[in-house]
Amino acid sequence: MSGAVLVAVAAAIGNLLQGWDNATIAGAVLYIKKEFHLESNPSMEGLIVAMSLIGATLITTWSGGVADWLGRRPMLILSSVLYFVGSLVMLWSPNVYVLLLGRLLDGFGVGLVVTLVPIYISETAPPEIRGLLNTLPQFTGSGGMFLSYCMVFGMSLMPSPSWRLMLGVLFVPSLVFFFLTIFFLPESPRWLVSKGRMLEAKRVLQRLRGREDVSGEMALLVEGLGIGGETTIEEYIIGPADDVADDLDIAVDKDQIKLYGAEEGLSWVARPVKGGSTVSVLSRLGSTMNRRQGSLVDPLVTLFGSVHEKMPETGSMRSALFPHFGSMFSVGGNQPRNEEWDEENLVGEGEDYPTDRGEDSDDDLHSPLISRQTTSMEKDMHSGQGPLSTFRHGSQVQGAHGEGAGSMGIGGGWQVAWKWTEREDESGQKEGGFKRIYLHQEGFPGSRRGSIVSLPGGGEGTGEAEFVQASALVSQPALYSKDLLREHTIGPAMVHPSGTAKGSLWHDLQDPGVKRALFVGVGLQILQQFSGINGVLYYTPQILEQAGVGILLSNLGISSSSSSLLISALTTFVMLPAIAVAMRLMDLSGRRTLLLTTIPILISSLIVLVISNLVHMNSIVHAVLSTVSVVLYFCFFVMGFGPTPNILCSEIFPTRVRGICIAICALTFWICDIIVTYSLPVLLKSIGLAGVFGMYAVVCCISWAFVYLKVPETKGMPLEVITEFFSVGARQAEAEKNN
User: Does the pLDDT at position 413 exceed 60?
Assistant: First the structure.
């Protein structure tokens, strides 16, 4: 996974520039207002500081849609160029109006980074470490603030500090970011698949994952193009073909699906369990209890919680259920070759792929993923050959009574599979249905069900049984077209991925799953901004000065302006270890758990700040209480409420609308940031510091309730599986509301 880690680190440099800019202007404005005599013009001083915020808000309104159109990488390149040009303009700045232009350009770069870096990291990271990698922007942003405060503090000790140099030095790290985006960062493989550029997407995935066989994830990316399909939750017992116990409550005969591995003689049988999936049963039971008890917990939260309760803790990028399944895109063993589909292997060594010539999707993939002419069902098959043999050199699965499936690992212990069911109607004509399945092993400690034991060919386990129990999300594949099926009477008919990705944007945004995800994402962004972080940042220098830090620094001969910069540097430095802890916990404890455990600490810290400002007490006691509360607030904010909203927003939207949906969330973030920033001085005058912190504490209480009732846990799940569960959960909630 080192490739994905390095790419995420490189992308997060953009957030380092954001933090650098935020800290630099805070120090430089002290000298700007002296040179331009702005002491009597506070509105212009405020505009200089806020111009970056205005630029970020403006560019966010269209950045998501353009990113879905042009790609993630070009927009990151543009952000580095805007950073670079803006810093040079600020370095030159002969007057205040040119300075405002430089700040505006800089704000454009900030807006693009805040919107696109979380998308980019989520779309390139493996599910197992996606939370860790998506916390990197928070870490690099705080690191950039710390480095910038240290630089500005050092320059403030000079006889005549230059604010132009303070702002203009940003061109150095922005130039580094530019070269990284040009020469190191690849395009998002999910975006490439959405445009039908399959070969290029495959090469990027191979680089990111550090292995040749990325067939399962390629199939997952294609399946992620669909929005709003009908999905059912089922359960299968999977085991060696001859060893599935007959006494289990399994629906046998026509419903069984036989799975073939890449080695001759290696096969499994998957049989649906009567009564549906354990996940679906638990979800229904939870929803029923919620209704009986009058609970407000969203059925979506119950559904995700049921999934995580039944997941074993051994999810990996490798297949847990089918360790011998081969590659969909690489030749292996005695796999049959379909020359019509062998375009990729027609390229000789040393020759460029078609995508290297910059051609669009029609030149990357001239035909559908499955041949419409050669998918007739074959009843007698052996290992490695099956009804979907026209998948490029893929390992195959043949089902009893005309059902077939092909399965591969897609990360987090999940598998993707397909089954083809062919039946005869009353008139004797054959009709079929092509289904896509997301599988995940269910864990049942102390039970034979769910234990992976002595699977043929090296499956590990305890020896208690030779089968596993797996939950399954069953839906129509993204490329399956019933209209095309009417034109081709044999086998499943497929459409081009780029054709699947096209659709009405408004129609996609109206999908129940997308609307539910937008509600969660926008709600988190609003509550994060009104939870008090700006107020605490504003008050921190005053608190630390009361604690005696200012007196100590003045005794060392440091001026008051330099002292405020050093205090801010120390504040941001305290955040870094807390963010490092959050990086570790994000994929272990989970996003929801971190929010539910850190928000109460924020509430407690704010309540202590309220009390310390209302009750008359000894100055030393007041300083100690205030300092401890501020430090705790900062540490636990950056562990939970700081990075988590952006992480969740980058995970819960489908590929086709991910850019525009995250842009909506980011626009909400910037608008709320403006409201909070400019309302704070007014609130301080009207209700005082204690009243402001009390209001923030109330918002944090509302935030905890919102997370508990509405925000699901997404750790360790592939993005496409998350969006599928949102779709299922949203429809379940609508059905319950109607009933």
Answer: yes
Distance of CA 86 to the CA centre of its chain: 29
Instruction: Write the CA distances from 357 to 97, 200, 457, integer angstroms.
Output: 44, 11, 42
pLDDT at 336: 38
Tokens of 280: 């679906």
Per-residue CA distances from 694 to 352, 628, 688 (Å): 63, 17, 10
**Spatial separation of the C-alpha atoms in residues 432 and 527, rounded to whole Å:** 49
Degrees to nearest 5, angle at CA 401 with 396 and 402 = 45
pLDDT at 385: 32
Distance CA 300, CA 737 (A): 13
Rounded to an integer, what is the distance from CA 9 to the centroid of its chain? 15
Q: Which residues make Cβ contacts (< 8 Å) with residue 622, sequence separation at least 6?
A: 546, 612
In one letter, which amino acid is 557?
G
How far is residue 355 CA from its own chain's centroid? 27
Q: Token pair of 522, please?
A: 């926008």
Residue 501: pLDDT band (50, 70, 90) is low
CB 460, CB 469: distance < 8 Å: no
Residues 467 and 259: beta-carbon distance below 8 Å: no
Q: Please report the DSSP string for 361-417 in residue order.
A: HHHH-SS-SS-SSS----SS--TT--TTTTSTT----EETTTEE--EEEEETTEEEE
* Residue 404, beta-bridge partner list: 398, 420
Which residue, among 734, 735, 729, has the nearest Cα to 302 in the 3D structure?
729
pLDDT at 389 over 60: no
245-284 burial string, b = 16+ CB within 10 Å, else e?
Answer: eeebebeeeebbbbbbbbbeebbbbbbbbeebbbbbebbb
